[in-house]
Amino acid sequence: MGERRDQEPGCPVGEAEARRLTCVLRESVEQVRAAVLVLAERVRAAHRGRVWIALGYPSFPVESACLSRSLSP
Question: pTM for this one?
Answer without folding.
Answer: 0.61
